[in-house]
Amino acid sequence: MNNPTATVWKGVPVVPGVGYGPVIRPEPRPPVPAPVTVAEADRDTEIARYDAAAATVAARLTERAALASGAAAEVLSATADLARDRGLSAAAAQRIRTGTDAVHACAEATDQFAALFTQLGGLMAERVTDLHDIRDRIVAELTGAPEPGVPRPTEPSVLVADDLAPADTAGLDERTVALVTRLGGPTSHTAIIARQLGIPCVVAVTDLPEIPTGTPVLVNGETGEILVRPDELAAHAAVRASAEQRSATSAWRGPGRTADGHPVGILANVQDGASAQQAAGSQAEGVGLFRTELAFLNRETEPGVDEQAELYAAVLRAFTGRKVVVRTLDAGSDKPLAFTGTAAEPNPALGVRGLRIAFDDPGILDRQLDAIARAAEQTGEQPWVMAPMVSTVADARFFAERARARGLVAGVMVEVPAVALLADRVLEHVDFLSIGTNDLTQYTMAADRLSPGLATLTDPWQPAHLALVAQVARAGTAAGKPVGVCGEAAADPLLACVLVGLGITSLSAATAALPAVGARLATVSLDLCRTAAAVALAADDPGAAREAARTALQA
């Protein structure tokens, strides 16, 4: 595929597929004019000018969110909320009242919050990219500069960037045929949205040089290879072969099973009734992860039982007669809830989040379980419920007793290595386990999964992570209880085969990823999956594990 002048770079593959085209890059940040001192008589007007610019930016993002769906809509809405954030606005206004102009007040207020978010770490640190994106959009509005972001290509193009704001990724269209970033990881927001959109994507190409705009590039989202100036005929042939494979994949209709008939549940991740309706019309056999925090975030008061029940019932009705797994509130100091009074913590990823909120205020969990039970009664469905951030056998017992008291099927998420190590004991108290591979990798490797510099450590192909998955799966098999995966690892068709080989019984991912996962499983036997799992476990690093599994599955 190379020609003599082609160069090859390698990163972490995120979304399979092949894309070829000229490089495009995000627009540069808007120029910032020299600071001016605002006269005292004009400061109220300057504050109003900032507020108007922020409101315009928020309105544009909200409009784009209304045209999107799934994770893309969620990210755009969250970014719009950040533009409206009262704390950010107040910090800017405070500076304007001392004479700082709106542009520099915006920049200084953003720097203040970015430093705070970085210190908090975890998901809050991920919002720093969003903050900088909002800053640049507001500055552009204030100065009359073009809105920053990704240009709209007029031909099939490959987007190359150091990193991308999630709002930019969410706005990509079919003319962006591949995505390459120097930073980021397989579980970053950019990667998650690219997976939902089905755009071939490679991240963490740490040694990627500055490739000039317009340079032809071939991106292989399965191997992680980026070829700069490849042979044109060979590149077009690779794109055609990938398109044919995608066409065959889209024809897969399920149910999930290996080539020799071993059943594997193919389930969808959803966050509300609209996304559930979309998933219900796809190949999804049910819902493996219903994220309920959408009803709680950005709220000054806790939603009532009736309001929650209505949201949950919408998802249950979309999947009448099919499995729906509801995750209870997964929030905390890294996704703060205004009504809990939880204090800021120096390390929120290891703080009061998920089920831990209920230890101080069990009423929040009890009311949510009441709402789920009410939705079940209204619809005649039997939802499964699981708690996030469970750490001990006692945690699992605490949750299971509350869930079963309301007639619900009780399970817990395996995100903390302690639970993976004691999975057999946890299964004495619950009916199923669901592995959140994003957080399990993070905690296993002691590496923030949103840190660009640690993308290799937080790769779900890490053999240590796979060893824990294998231990949990063995415990499920011994107990005769299902063990699913609902992290981003379930969206990787190659890794899905390995997970099934380890003993995982169901895979839950973004709706767009399901056909590729189901179609790949349909081509391999259970024994071949087990062989791929064995060689991946025996590897010393994630790259070697990925290549060993790929070779085994081609046997």
From TrEMBL:
The active site is at residues 189, 486. Keywords: Cytoplasm, Kinase, Magnesium, Metal-binding, Phosphotransferase system, Sugar transport, Transferase, Transport. It catalyses: L-histidyl-[protein] + phosphoenolpyruvate = N(pros)-phospho-L-histidyl-[protein] + pyruvate. One of its GO terms (biological process) is phosphoenolpyruvate-dependent sugar phosphotransferase system. GO terms for molecular function: kinase activity; metal ion binding; phosphoenolpyruvate-protein phosphotransferase activity. Residues 10-127 form the Phosphotransferase system enzyme I N-terminal domain. Mg(2+) binds at residues 415, 439. The keyword Aminoacyl-tRNA synthetase does not apply. It is found in: Cytoplasm. PROSITE patterns: PEP_ENZYMES_2 (PS00742), PEP_ENZYMES_PHOS_SITE (PS00370). General (non sugar-specific) component of the phosphoenolpyruvate-dependent sugar phosphotransferase system (sugar PTS). This major carbohydrate active-transport system catalyzes the phosphorylation of incoming sugar substrates concomitantly with their translocation across the cell membrane. Enzyme I transfers the phosphoryl group from phosphoenolpyruvate (PEP) to the phosphoryl carrier protein (HPr). Belongs to the PEP-utilizing enzyme family. This is Phosphoenolpyruvate-protein phosphotransferase. It comes from Kribbella sp. HUAS MG21.
